[in-house]
Amino acid sequence: MSLKKTIIITSDHNGVKLKDKIQKTLSNKFNFIDLGPNTTEKVDYTDYAAQLSSIVSKNQVKHGILICGTGIGMSITANKYENVRAAIVHNYLSAKNSKDHNNSNIICLGSWINKDETNIKLLNHWLNTKFGKGRHLKRVEKIEKNIKSEKIVFTNGVFDILHSGHIELLKYAKLLGKKLVVGLNSDKSVKIIKGKNRPINNQNDRKNILLQLNLVDEVLIFDERKPINLINQINPDVVVKGAEHTTDHIRKFDQIPSNIKIKTFPIKKGYSTTKTIKKIKSAEKNNSYR
């Protein structure tokens, strides 16, 4: 089985030459699905852009290439589809930032704007750039077309001593839907996970504190180490986790059904309940010597 990544590609009549040259040049790195056209006879760019965008929208192929005279018509058509972020790329800065900042999944090239060789270099630059996440993650979610008001979002944790990292995670989760449900580890399960001296705050206090936040709509306490049963009962549209693990690992470890989308949020460095507790103990110790 080939380990090469699959990319879907199409154009209008103005982009056929560049489309063929891209596949010839990059065939050693990628498997291409070519939707046509195969001749320079005039066609409507909208038809080809729509077909490719529909496939990317359903996540059947992760990345696509659209080519027309300027790339503009293709991008306008593509961005009508859910989950599609189609970027017009005419220079190196837009090639890099459209991926790094905007997590674009379709690149739109202009055969009239740059020479074929330049367009291929821009494409390579785009393909080799990864999404930067971080501060860009929340911004991209705000422009997603697939955010529906009826969505239920679920996240879980101990939430013993709330800190900035917790708040940022909850803010991100709330962006993804209308109702945010938090699964809260019971005191019993926290002791199993964190040790006999935890939690600092009991489950009722932790629940009440979370419910004071406008971000949180419901808090449900569970006794198990993992919220598998709770997720099955709620059947949320989205589950949000910290980004210390990949979505594939999370789905397998927490046994999350395939119909539920998983989103990860970067852990905010320098913040943890364990560190907070250590600081408090250190301060108490230092004060006792005074």
Explain what you see.
There is one protein chain. This protein is of the alpha/beta class. It has 2 domains: 5-137, Ribose 5-phosphate Isomerase B, Chain: A; 147-279, HUPs (Rossmann fold). 41% of the residues lie in helices and 19% in strands. The chain has 12 helices and 10 strands. The protein has helices at 16-26, 45-57, 72-78, 92-100, 116-127, 135-143, 164-175, 187-194, 203-211, 228-234, 247-253, 273-288; strands at residues 5-11, 30-34, 63-68, 86-88, 106-110, 152-157, 179-185, 218-222, 238-242, 261-265. The strands form 2 sheets. The chain has a 5-stranded parallel beta sheet, with helices on both faces. Strands 8-7-6-9-10 form a 5-stranded parallel beta sheet, sandwiched between helices. α1 (16-26) links the parallel β1 (5-11) and β2 (30-34). α2 crosses α3 (72-78) and α4 runs parallel beside α5 (116-127). It is elongated and about 75 Å long. The mean pLDDT is 90.
Q: What secondary-structure arrangement, pairings included, does this model have?
A:
Elements (H helix, E strand, L loop, with lengths): L4 E7 L4 H11 L3 E5 L10 H13 L5 E6 L3 H7 L7 E3 L3 H9 L5 E5 L5 H12 L7 H9 L8 E6 L6 H12 L3 E7 L1 H8 L8 H9 L6 E5 L5 H7 L3 E5 L4 H7 L7 E5 L7 H16 L2
Parallel strand pairs: 1-2, 1-3, 3-5, 4-5, 6-7, 6-9, 7-8, 9-10
Helix pairs in contact: 2-3, 4-5
